[in-house]
C-alpha cells in the first residue's frame, strides 16, 4: 500500500457548490509551478518570476501599477488597508463584507483597524452612504475614516460597474479617503461586465487592489496591486510584518503569471460565471425555489424549502448563507462541469417537489 502522503485522500470526481475555494488548482498553474522549480534564484521576490509579474501587472493595471505577491486574500486585505490608513483611522466597508465578517478579525487584530459598516443593497454601497458615514465618523469621539473598502465582485455575487466605481472613488477622494478594492473575484466581475481589469480599478480611481488568484485557479497566491503609487505608504514593510512575504516568492509569482500572462484568468472566470448562469437558468422555474440576487458572476443565491435544503446538503456541499432567511449560496468554479450543474439542478427540482407537491420538472 502506498504511503498516505502520496495517496489521494479525496474523490477527484466530486464537485460541490460550496465555494470556488473548494476547487483544486488549474493544471496550467501546477505546470507553471513545476517549470519554476529547480535551481536557485533570489528569494523574497528578487527572482525572474516576480520581475516578469511586475510587467504583466503593468499591462493589466497601467504603467504606474506596482505588484506585491501575497499568500491569501485576507493577507492582501490586511496589508493593503494598513498601508492606506494612518494608525488612528477607520475603514468603511459594506455591512457583511468579507473583510468585516469573515476574516477572523484580522484587520482589527493584525492591522489595528476599526471597520465601519455601511448599508448595502445586494452587497453594494453608495456614495451618499459613504459620505454620511464619513461625516458621522469625523466627530471628535469617533474614529475618522481614512479609507473605504469595496468588494468586486461583491459577497452577494453582484458587480459595481466602472461608472459606479468611479462615482464612489470620486466621492471618497473628495472626502479625503483612499479607496481599496477587495478583488478576490475581480476577474469574475471583469468578465461579467466585459471590461479589462484596468477599467474597474485604475481607470475608475481605485488606489489599491487586493487581486485574487486563488479562487480563479491558483494554488495559493494573491497580490496587492497599487494602482496609484504614493497612496500605500510602507506597503513593502507591512507585507513582511504581516507575515505575507514568502521567502520562495517565485512560486507565488509563477501562479499569478500562469493566470495573468495569457488568457487563463479570463477563460477560467468566464467558465465559472457560465456555470452559475446555467444553474440559475435550470432552477429558476422550480416550484419552491426563489433566486434572491442578480446572478452576475459565479454565485447563485436562493431560498428553497428548509427540508429540501437539508436533504440536498446531505448529498451536495453548499452553504446556508443566512440562517434567519434560509438563503443559500451555490458557487461554481473554473472546474465545475455541465454535468455537475445538471445533476445538482435535477436534485434541487426533485427535493423541492417532495416539499411542494409539484412534479419534478425538467431541470
Ligand atoms: C470577497 C473575499 N475577500 C477576501 C477573501 C479572503 O481570501 P482568503 O480566504 O484567501 O484569505 C475571500 C475568501 O473567500 C472573499 O470571498
From TrEMBL:
SUPFAM superfamilies in UniProt: PLP-dependent transferases
Keywords: Pyridoxal phosphate
Aromatic amino acid beta-eliminating lyase/threonine aldolase domain residues: 17-303
Family of the protein in this entry: Belongs to the threonine aldolase family.
Entry cofactors: pyridoxal 5'-phosphate
Identification of the protein by name: Low specificity L-threonine aldolase
Species for this entry: Kineococcus glutinatus
InterPro entries: ArAA_b-elim_lyase/Thr_aldolase (IPR001597), PyrdxlP-dep_Trfase (IPR015424), PyrdxlP-dep_Trfase_major (IPR015421), PyrdxlP-dep_Trfase_small (IPR015422)
Organism taxonomic ancestry: Bacteria, Bacillati, Actinomycetota, Actinomycetes, Kineosporiales
Pfam families per UniProt: Beta_elim_lyase
Amino acid at each position: 500500500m502506498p504511503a498516505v502522503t502520496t495517496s489521494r485522500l479525496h474523490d477527484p470526481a466530486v464537485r460541490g457548490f460550496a465555494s470556488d475555494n473548494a476547487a483544486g488548482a488549474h493544471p496550467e498553474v501546477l505546470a507553471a509551478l513545476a517549470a519554476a522549480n529547480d535551481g536557485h534564484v533570489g528569494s523574497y521576490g528578487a527572482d525572474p518570476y516576480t520581475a516578469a509579474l511586475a510587467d504583466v501587472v503593468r499591462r493589466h493595471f497601467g504603467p504606474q501599477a506596482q505588484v506585491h505577491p501575497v499568500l491569501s486574500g485576507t493577507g492582501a486585505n490586511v496589508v493593503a488597508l494598513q498601508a492606506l490608513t494612518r494608525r488612528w483611522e477607520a475603514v468603511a466597508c459594506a455591512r457583511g463584507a468579507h473583510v468585516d465578517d469573515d476574516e477572523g478579525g484580522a484587520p482589527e487584530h493584525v492591522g489595528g483597524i476599526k471597520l465601519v459598516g455601511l448599508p448595502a443593497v445586494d452587497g453594494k454601497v453608495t456614495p451618499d452612504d459613504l459620505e454620511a458615514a464619513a461625516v458621522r465618523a469625523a466627530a471628535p469621539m469617533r474614529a475618522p475614516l481614512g479609507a473605504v473598502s469595496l468588494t468586486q465582485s461583491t459577497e452577494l455575487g453582484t458587480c459595481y460597474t466602472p461608472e459606479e466605481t468611479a462615482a464612489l472613488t470620486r466621492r471618497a477622494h473628495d472626502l479625503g479617503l483612499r479607496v481599496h478594492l477587495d478583488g478576490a473575484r475581480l476577474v469574475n466581475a471583469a468578465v461579467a461586465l466585459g471590461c479589462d481589469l484596468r477599467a474597474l480599478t485604475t481607470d475608475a480611481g481605485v488606489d489599491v487592489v487586493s487581486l485574487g488568484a486563488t479562487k480563479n485557479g491558483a494554488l495559493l497566491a494573491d497580490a496587492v496591486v497599487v494602482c496609484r503609487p504614493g497612496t500605500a505608504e510602507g506597503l513593502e514593510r507591512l507585507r513582511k510584518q504581516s507575515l505575507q512575504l514568502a521567502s520562495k516568492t517565485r512560486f507565488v509569482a509563477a501562479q499569478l503569471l500562469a493566470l495573468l500572462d495569457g488568457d487563463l484568468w479570463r477563460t477560467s472566470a468566464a467558465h465559472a460565471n457560465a456555470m452559475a448562469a446555467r444553474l440559475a437558468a435550470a432552477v429558476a422555474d422550480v416550484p419552491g425555489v426563489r433566486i434572491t440576487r442578480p446572478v452576475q458572476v459565479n454565485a447563485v443565491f436562493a431560498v428553497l424549502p428548509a427540508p429540501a435544503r437539508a436533504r440536498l446538503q446531505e448529498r451536495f456541499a453548499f452553504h446556508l448563507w443566512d440562517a434567519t432567511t434560509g438563503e443559500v449560496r451555490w458557487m461554481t468554479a473554473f472546474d465545475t462541469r455541465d454535468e455537475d450543474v445538471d445533476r445538482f439542478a435535477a436534485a434541487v427540482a426533485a427535493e423541492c417537489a417532495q416539499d411542494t407537491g409539484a412534479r419534478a420538472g425538467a431541470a
